[in-house]
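Our preliminary data section would be incomplete without showing what the modeling component actually yields. Below, a chain of 121 amino acids is followed by its predicted structure, encoded as tokens that our downstream tools consume directly.
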Amino acid sequence: MKTKPLPITHNYAIKSDGIRNFQLCERRLVDPTKSPKWAEKVAENPDLDPAPYEKWVEVESYHGRLESALNAIVVRETLQFDGGTIEELKANLASLHAVIAESLKSHDFSAEIARFKESEG
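Predicted structure:
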């Protein structure tokens, strides 16, 4: 059984495959009106909501340990950082670590960790 994504940062979440891995998910904003079949869908259902919506998509990133998954989030967020100075990068990293720490306080990963430990024997 897979778990639902637990947001860690604004753009990334972690979920478990329920057996061995933690997987990274990336937040995507979907505009349904950009779909090639939008006109078809609206013709079938005129009350269809055209508002953009958010969806979490698995990225090809599997981790046997929670620490590794969190590190992968730090790496991805850092690679996407658009600052101009070392000081800005340091501040961004400090902020990112604070966001992750706060997220870990608000989520209970004990069920996922227990399943992992059971699977290891």
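The chain has a mean pLDDT of 85. Residues 86-106 form the longest helix (21 residues). Preliminary results of this kind motivate Aim 1 of the renewal.
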